[in-house]
Amino acid sequence: MFASLKTIDSAFQQVKTLALIFIIAVLLLAGTIAYFAFQSTNAAANRIYVLEGGRLLTAGAQDARANRPVEARSHVTRFHELFFSLDPDQKAIDSNVNKALYLADNSAKKQYENFKEKGFYNDLIAANISLGMTVDSVVISNSRPLTARCYGHQRVIRATSVTNRDFISVCSLRDVTRSENNPHGFLMENWRVLQNKDLNTLPR
């Protein structure tokens, strides 16, 4: 009788152990399925399907904040290229400067009005002078608000000579709504030129 009870007790322990192992295996399987389902859902959410000419194309979605420093550098570069790349043509000057002014606040507009009052643009046209701006690098801070320091050089092309200038400017950057005139969604604030000095003048 005691041997029979021991056998029953042993069988019960085995059944209990097997049941516990089965439950743990089921939970692990359920957890694995849930994890992969979550990963698949996330991947699907970051995928956009576009129908073009009867073909289904896939486009990936990405967090916009990941590219903000790159966009900030591009924004600052674009402003300086527009504002300081000028040919002796009033319409070309107006077109470039007006595009640049969408990218910055009143600090840039004040500089533009300064140039106008001093006859800077009229002198360019009268003397057939072209200005070219090449941005070498833009350093963006990691802090908020973002600040940018732009390093570049200018070429002043006259009929008989070319003058090279060293150029440095600084500004802070504020997030604004993206638009056709401001595709990166930044506004340069408190922009000022720290250095714009002649390096050399070469005859043409």
What does this structure look like?
- This protein has about 200 residues and is α+β, with helices and mostly antiparallel strands.
- The chain has five helices and six strands, in the order H-E-E-H-H-H-H-E-E-E-E.
- Helix 2 (about 70-85) runs antiparallel to helix 3 (about 90-100).
- The longest helix has about 45 residues, at about 1-45.
- About 15% of the residues are buried.
- Keywords: Membrane, Transmembrane, Transmembrane helix.
- This is Conjugative transposon protein TraK.
How large, in whole angstroms, is the Cα Rg?
33 Å
- Give the SSE string: HEEHHHHEEEE
Rounded average pLDDT: 86
Physical arrangement of strands within the biggest beta sheet? 3-4-5-6
* Topology, number of strands: 6
Helix fraction, binned, reads 40-55%
Multimeric state:
single chain
* Shape assignment: elongated
Q: Please work out how many helical segments DSSP would assign.
A: 5
Instruction: Give the terminus-to-terminus CA distance.
Output: 118 Å
List keywords for this structure.
5 helices; single chain; 204 residues; four-stranded antiparallel sheet; 6 strands; alpha+beta
In short:
With 204 residues, the chain is an alpha+beta fold. 45% of the residues lie in helices and 33% in strands. A four-stranded antiparallel beta sheet has the order 3-4-5-6, with helices on one face.
